[in-house]
Amino acid sequence: MSDTVTLIVDGIPHELPLVTGTEGERAVDISRLRSTTGLITLDDAYSNTGSCSSAITFIDGERGILRYRGVPIEDLASRSSFIEVAELLIFGDLPDDDERDEFRQLLTENSSLHRDMRKHFDGFPVDAHPMAILSAMINAIQAYDLPEIHITGEAGFRRAAALLLAKTRTIAAASYKSHIGQPIAYPRYDLPYAENFLHMMFTVPYRDYEVTPEAAHALNMFFVLHADHEQNCSTSTVRMVASSGANLFTAVSAGVTALWGPLHGGANMGVIEMLEQIRNEGMSVGSYLAKAKDRKSGIRLMGFGHRVYRNFDPRARILKKAAHDLLESMNIDDPLLDIAREVEEAALADDYFAERRLYPNVDFYSGIILRAIGIPLDMFTVLFAIGRTAGWIAHWKEVNDNTAQRIHRPRQLYTGNKLTKWLPLDER
């Protein structure tokens, strides 16, 4: 098998290296293309472009495979806590007992916000979106934890990673409390990660929130399944910002902003809104799908299809069962789940969607789970961000550990005016 490909430009052959990843993926190395040929590649939205090499997450979209550091997502979702998965992603291996205990202690020690940080929440309008608050407050952490801006040594990085994971959770819950006009709840040091978040979300001064095992388990699984997903929009943003030498908090804050987009982290909200529309308007699932197939209707089938997966999203398979189990264990009769099942069954049986390989993705069932736990709709993307923070930290570290790392600087194909003469104001 040849380890090069030949590109012929103006009759002149150019040999380009062919590189292979550990799972057999092959890529044409074009890093010297412009210097040797004067050409650049044009790939709108980077659908066919590998922007980096990474050892963090492997996806095979054709076979529906997702692995963190080589470990199948199915095993992690059923057997690991979110913090254990975060350690796997960030540090490269599943932790042993000592590593796990040490990291959890760091999380505990860094859960609270600086007293003066709490003043910032009062400065946001009451109707400020929690994602806007989350992005701003993560960036603000560096003003209160100055030593963490310039991380030195493995111990320094471990503390910074734990600090960011812990405070992101606290900020997220505080943003919700600020949004609804309730006092901010302190974290409890006797609760695991997911349980602590639910405590801070729903505890009020006159009544402590009792976290159910079912809700805690479902939320932990949600965080695990959202912890990383290769070079998506927000992760690529984190890596690009990191390539400039920006600190961890600035880079992750940028990731939050990218995630906020409705085509990225906001997609699970779209699923709930779709199901509510079907219910509230008394539409049949068949009529909704008919409209979704008509591009002129403006109606989309939310929660189906994926830029990478051309098969069933493995995270959707896990969450489908998790959603059913959660509602059954909590004795919740949610008509939206019945509609979701009907939508899934009808869409999978429809040749239009089958031919386009539009299968349910992670967003389809995650919204149902968050809704059952009691998470309000405008907090859905915030919870996505909490889980994805683990992956963002891992990617920031990978960029910074790469001694050959250069600042990201994509090229473009210019399509504007040719040389244009400047005219004085009275001649324009």
Description:
The protein is mostly helical. It has three domains: 4-65, Single Sheet (Rubrerythrin, domain 2), CATH 2.20.28; 72-261, Citrate Synthase, domain 1, CATH 1.10.580.10; 267-373, Cytochrome P450-Terp, domain 2 (Cytochrome p450-Terp, domain 2, Orthogonal Bundle). It is built from 18 helices and six strands. The chain has helices at residues 33-37, 73-79, 82-91, 97-109, 117-123, 130-144, 153-180, 193-202, 213-225, 233-243, 248-259, 267-280, 285-293, 314-329, 335-348, 351-355, 362-373, 380-401, and strands at residues 4-9, 12-20, 26-28, 57-60, 65-68, 71-72. It has a three-stranded antiparallel β-sheet with strand order 1-2-3. A hairpin with a 4-residue loop joins strand 4 and strand 5 (65-68). Helix 2 packs antiparallel against helix 9 (213-225), helix 8 crosses helix 9 and helix 10 (233-243) packs antiparallel against helix 11.
Key attributes of the depicted protein:
428 residues, mainly alpha, Rubrerythrin, domain 2, Cytochrome p450-Terp, domain 2, 3-stranded antiparallel beta sheet, 6 strands, globular
Q: What would CATH call the architecture of the largest domain?
A: Orthogonal Bundle
CATH fold annotation of the largest domain: Citrate Synthase, domain 1
Count of individual domains? 3
Helix content range = 40-55%
Determine the CATH superfamily of the largest domain.
Citrate Synthase, domain 1
What is the total tally of β strands?
Answer: 6
